Amino acid sequence: MRTLIFRAIAPYLTALMLLFSIFVTLRGHNEPGGGFIGGLLAASAFALYGIAFGVPEARRAMWFHPISVAGTGLLLSAISGLPSFFRGTPYLTGIWTTAPVFHFDVATIILFDLGVYLVVAGAFASIALALEDNGER
Amino acid sequence: MSLSADFLWVAIHIALGVLSLAFLMVTWRVLRGPTLPDRVVGLDALVVIAIGFIATIGIKTGFTLYVDIALALGLVGFLATVAFARFTLSLQGKIQQQNDEQDEREENEGKGA
């Protein structure tokens, strides 16, 4: 859409929405939030950018094809279940360990949540951009 | 109960009452609205009032989490309004195109006769 005010504010709003989506994702699992709602926010950020500057510009801003982003997320989520294989626990059991040098707790849960984030962001951005592509500008 | 707590209680309930009144009035505008843009602006106002409700309830219950919900609703509500504006523009373009085509056809018929 060729509107000066909207075009001026869209990059800032997109950046704010992406930042908020990462915040919501990282807070998730024990508190409200998580990969799904974070991914939805990220997808709506790219939809906003696509409406403001056109679909090709939004696709360039995403760097990768939305579907390949979703595929990477699915792979990450699947991989996050593998460490439980070595512990002899059921698939996708959350496993906690302490990082050797930096002494903070890491878990497989964050990998799973990031995977869900990428799946939802990629899939919904793909849908939104495809819908916007068909409408004339 | 201290004076400040009393004052906060009264303020919150006045705010909730005013917001409810605004909600009803805007709902009436959305249902009635003569044209599509009226309804779109009404829906945007509904989102803003809902944000006000969430913030007031957040103050009343003391959950800071409600602020995040209000923030998310604000961002997504803006996207919804933009998408509606986009839809209205493309709808107008289609109507214009149809009118042009009809004019052209009538002109051609006029020439034929």
Automatic annotation (TrEMBL), chain A:
The chain crosses the membrane at residues 12-29, 35-55, 67-86, 106-131. Residues 5-124 form the Na+/H+ antiporter MnhB subunit-related protein domain. It is found in: Cell membrane. InterPro entries: CPA3_antiporter_subunitB, MnhB. It is a multi-pass membrane protein. It holds the Pfam family MnhB. Keywords: Cell membrane, Membrane, Transmembrane, Transmembrane helix. Belongs to the CPA3 antiporters (TC 2.A.63) subunit B family. PANTHER family: NA(+)/H(+) ANTIPORTER SUBUNIT B, NA(+)_H(+) ANTIPORTER SUBUNIT B. This is Na+/H+ antiporter subunit B. It comes from Tianweitania aestuarii.
From TrEMBL, chain B:
It is a multi-pass membrane protein. Keywords: Cell membrane, Membrane, Transmembrane, Transmembrane helix, Transport. Residues 94-113 are annotated as: Disordered. The chain crosses the membrane at residues 6-28, 40-59, 65-89. The keyword Membrane applies. It comes from the Bacteria. It is found in: Cell membrane. InterPro entries: MrpF/PhaF-like. Belongs to the CPA3 antiporters (TC 2.A.63) subunit F family. This is Cation:proton antiporter. It comes from Tianweitania aestuarii.
